[in-house]
Amino acid sequence: MPQLAIDATCLPQYDKLDRPTRERLIAATRKFRELPLEALLAHPDLRIRRLPAGQDPRIRTFRISDGWTGVMLAPESGETFLLVHLLPRDSAEDWAGEQRHDVNTVMGTLERRNAAALGRVVGRGDVAAPVQAGGAGPPGEAVPAPASDPEPSGGPVVARPDEAALFDHVSNHDLRRLGVDAEIRRFCRTLTTEEELEGWRAALPQDQYEVLSHLAEGLPVERVLREVVEPRRPRVGAVAADDYDTAIRNTRERVIVVNDDQEIEDVLAGEFNAWRIYLHPKQRDLAYRPRFNGPAKVSGGPGTGKTVVALHRVKFLAEHLPLGGRVLLTSFTNALVESLKRNLALLLPAELIEDVDVITADKLAMNVVKEEQPDVSFWSDNDVRGLLANVAQRHGLRWSADFLFQEYRHVIMAHGITTVDGYLDPDARRGRSLALDTAQRRDVWHAIADARVRMRRNRRLPSLELHAEAARILDGRAEKPYTNVVIDEAQDLHPTQWRTLRAAAAPGANDLFIAGDNRQRIYDNTVSFKQLGIRIVGRSYPLRVNYRTTGEILAWAGEILRGQQVSELGEPVPEPAGTTRSVLRGRPPEVRAARDLADELDALAERVRGWLADGIAPGDVCVTTRTHRLRNAVVRELTERGVPAAAFQASKDTVTDASPAVRVTTMHSVKGLEFRAIAVFGVTADALPNMEHVTDAEVDEQQHEADLAAQRSLLYVACTRARESLYVSWHGEPSPFLPRAAVNGAVRRGPARR
Ligand SMILES: Nc1ncnc2c1ncn2[C@@H]1O[C@H](COP(=O)(O)OP(=O)(O)OP(=O)(O)O)[C@@H](O)[C@H]1O
To answer: Going by CA atoms, what residue is nearest to atom 25 of ligand 1?
Structure first.
């Protein structure tokens, strides 16, 4: 009986199918298991066809629906079909005609290349062209300028007279040992930059691309052999160049051989997301490294897979726990924690999940404190501000509640100061713009100390106090609650939260694994790992390849942060040079300057209708706003304009659920999430920055700047959630955070363009 395997690289396409098409695809794949080979090939609904012309005689297409076509590799020997792509019908044949599959005899894997595109470059001796949008590829996928002929024996054929080639430092002999075949050896000699290599990613044989990307990053040949090639080698014997069946089964990183109906449905229905099996070797190296000798940090721009690495790290740690050990996986908000929980459930078997707690740092602190003081309850920052105003009045002080709160949060609690002498230390207030003499400091200290006594007496503690208490309790315990702590979205944590997390696991190998990105810091916390006793030195790893967002959107959003200094996560130094690059290409963002609110809403409705008409599922479209009030208004107004819309609460609603409504949510809530299409609505001067949430420059100049930077990052975060399409609009005065060129080039008046 035939068997079906699925190449995980086609799974993102499944997200793009509407429900009836998904059902038809699942029904079609079932036939591959139920029918004998001859019946299958002759099945009238499937219409399995050879291509009239093409690079690979094994490729077949089959009909999923009127609009969608499946592309697969049919067996010449054996009975394993490999589903390689799902494409709109009108582009499927063009794409399939350019591809060729080969067995990599060094690694024993099956790889696909765009033989037509590679052949054109190698054959003509051209300079390698960067990837262009459009072409025959699926929307949003990098598509190289398309054409084939194998390497004639001999050295490089393409010379770049003025530039050093990217792989000059690697001999053909070594490339051959690493599984790079003749055609790709010739091709890679044409490349001069890592960006060019990445632009060609979709056209290159997958495993050879990994080898080349490691070499391009400067890794020595022996290490690439050990870390990329060896793990892929077949467990039993070599795989012959024509043994596709064995190669398919040996391509464990990308190919899932599905054995029963349930498995097929699980895989296709997204229960088997690509990130679960396919990691970039650099990501895999970090996630599955047996031992870091202390805290390790993974940083990187949006969409570089930090969360994916953190999840896999949890898997590794859970699999290697000592008896009675536990892992903590934590993130900044309840919504993010919920999303981590859902994803972890896809990655770990239930028995391992039992050994992992997925909670916010605040929840951990509350749990720890409640063990000793069960009657303690939570107080909001606003409650604290009210109390401080009260105390200031009682002490006859002239400072505002805001100023006292900043002093409490960013000086006393951030530095863990517990005595008046500590607060009088000349270093304690370093960086605060408003100078205080000794007498004034004493007054401020006593007022805040008074407020703190009242909070404790009333058993009502804000997050800052809970953490101070939790860290004290945990520091005093010989037995720590966790063996390992994994922290995602680390950029927003306050020093008090870090102290709790630091104290939650004993210092030692694999104690803390930290993932974050300071560009995405949307709260006002800055930390110094050194001061917190978190010693990262030598264990800091940047990720630079964005897998989520098209290059066009990423570059556009990057302009929002242009000229802003981004410091390294947990270090008071600027982030080292090196940009995040995207592997995807698509359309540039659309920008709309509306006449008034009604015009902005009309244009939004039209834009969203356009996305839905393009086949994007409503649940894959998200509209974000600066405030809850505007969010609610957008839901109402879109619904009135006939566009199905619902308020989305990330902590309750899943991103993947099949609700037939467009999601509308706040910019804070989209942190850590992603959607095919994002509309950022109401980007006006009074919404971004919203001065209600910015410390007055007169209260504290430095804090004022930090608050503005956090709001700028908020816009950046919202825009970088988009996978394929970004739309930004405002009416009236545009936000000063918007790139100037975007404001000048915005569509004004008239109907919005599709
Ligand atoms: N190696 C990979 N190959 C393909 N897709 C990947 C890979 N790594 C991550 N992804 C995908 O890229 C997207 C972004 O990943 P993830 O959310 O982990 O990034 P992140 O760095 O945490 O992003 P952010 O900081 O913006 O929240 C996800 O859709 C993920 O599945």
So the answer is: 302
Distance CA 528, CA 534 (A): 9
- Whether 104 shows a pLDDT value over 90: the answer reads yes
Q: How confident is the model at residue 202 (pLDDT cuts 50, 70, 90)?
A: confident
Looking at residue 270, what DSSP letter applies? I
User: Is 563 flagged in the annotation as binding?
Assistant: no
Q: Count of alpha carbons within 13 Å of 170, Cβ hemisphere only?
A: 29
Ligand 1 pocket member 592 (CB < 6 A): no
Nearest atom of ligand 1 to the alpha carbon of 674:
29
Instruction: Ligand 1, residue 283: give the atom nearest the CA.
Output: 1
CB 583 within 8 A of CB 201: yes
At 617, the amino acid letter reads A
Which run of H or E residues covers position 39?
helix 37-41
CA 285 to centroid of ligand 1, rounded, Å: 16
Q: Whose CA is nearest to atom 29 of ligand 1?
A: 548
Nearest to 547 by CA among 195, 304, 710: 304
Kindly state if the Cβ of 675 falls inside 6 Å of ligand 1: no
Query: Six-digit token pair at 111?
Result: 């790889």
Question: Is residue 533 annotated as involved in ligand binding?
Answer: no
Which ligand 1 atom is nearest residue 275's CA? 31
Which residue shows structure tokens 């076509």?
A: 69
User: Rg (Cα) of the chain, in Å, rounded?
Assistant: 28
Q: Whose CA is nearest to atom 13 of ligand 1?
A: 548
User: Are residues 228 and 286 in contact, defined by beta-carbon separation less than 8 angstroms?
Assistant: no
Is 508 labeled as ligand-binding?
Answer: no
State the pTM of this model: 0.77
Over residues 307-331, mean pLDDT: 96
Two structure tokens written together for 288: 């599955």
C-alpha 77/C-alpha 57 separation (Å) is 13
Q: In the chain, what percentage of residues exceed pLDDT 70? A: 89
Which tokens is 2 given? 């035939």
Query: Would you state the pLDDT for residue 273?
Result: 61
**Residue 748 backbone phi and psi in degrees, to 5:** -120, 145
> What's residue 503's pLDDT?
96
Tell me, what's the pLDDT at 571? 79
Look over the chain and give the mean of its residue pLDDT values, rounded to a whole number.
85
303 is in an annotated binding site: yes
Please tell me if the CB atom of residue 307 comes closer than 6 angstroms to any atom of ligand 1.
Answer: yes
| Residue 745 in marked binding region | no
For residue 238, pLDDT over 80 is answered with: yes
Give the model's pLDDT for residue 147: 31
Q: Is 574 annotated as a binding residue?
A: no
User: How long, in residues, is the chain?
Assistant: 754
**Which 3 state secondary structure label does DSSP give 214?**
helix
**Interface predicted TM-score of the whole assembly (ipTM), two decimals:** 0.98
pLDDT of 129 strictly over 50: no
- In the reported structure, the alpha carbon of residue 611 is separated from the centroid of ligand 1 by a whole-number distance in angstroms of 23
Cα(747) to ligand 1 centroid in Å equals 31
